[in-house]
Specification:
- By secondary structure, the protein is an alpha+beta fold.
- The chain has one domain: START domain (Alpha-D-Glucose-1,6-Bisphosphate, Chain A, domain 4).
- The chain has four helices and seven strands.
- A seven-stranded antiparallel β-sheet has the order 1-7-6-5-4-3-2, with helices on one face.
């Protein structure tokens, strides 16, 4: 298992950031590469279940993911099954009108990747994915802020 923790601060409240990490419709915008989700189903008042597909180092993976809201507007856990076994924990912390976002990913190294890549290159790819996911979150928040500034509705 590889355990990766990265953080970023975004210019929005936790209440604004929370739907971006907890609602499956936003996840393809956050995840690097060609991630897709379908067959989204409610799994409780705040929880979701969906089918996902994506590539990592040019190897195709798919499986089922479960989104579990641990604390509304503060923490979410996403667990994946299938080709990539991961548990990703998102934590949101208010910080002077912004939000400090921490993403912790605990992932098994998929055997198919080790047939084509070194362990170090797979680890590096997983770290880049976590970092890119946070960069994409920051960019999505910024895009929504700009949309709000020109008169679109999307309150922060």
């Amino acid at each position: 298992m590889e355990y990766i923790v990265r953080s970023v601060t975004v210019a929005a409240s936790p209440e604004h950031v929370f739907p971006l990490i907890s609602q499956p419709g936003y996840l393809p915008k956050l995840l690097p590469g060609d991630a897709e989700i379908d067959d989204v189903q409610r799994a409780g008042a705040h929880d979701w279940r969906y089918h996902w597909t994506r590539r990592l180092l040019n190897v195709h993976f798919d499986g089922i993911a479960t989104v579990m809201v641990d604390t509304p507007a503060r923490s979410v856990t996403i667990k994946t099954t299938g080709g990539l076994l991961c548990a990703a924990a998102w934590a949101l912390e208010p910080l002077d009108g912004e939000t400090h976002v921490t993403l912790s990913a605990d992932c098994a190294i998929p055997t198919p990747l080790l047939h084509k890549h070194t362990l170090d290159s797979v680890r590096d790819a997983l770290v880049r994915d976590v970092e890119q996911t946070l960069a994409n979150l920051r960019a999505l928040v910024e895009t929504q802020r700009k949309s709000q500034a020109v008169g679109h509705t999307n309150a922060f």
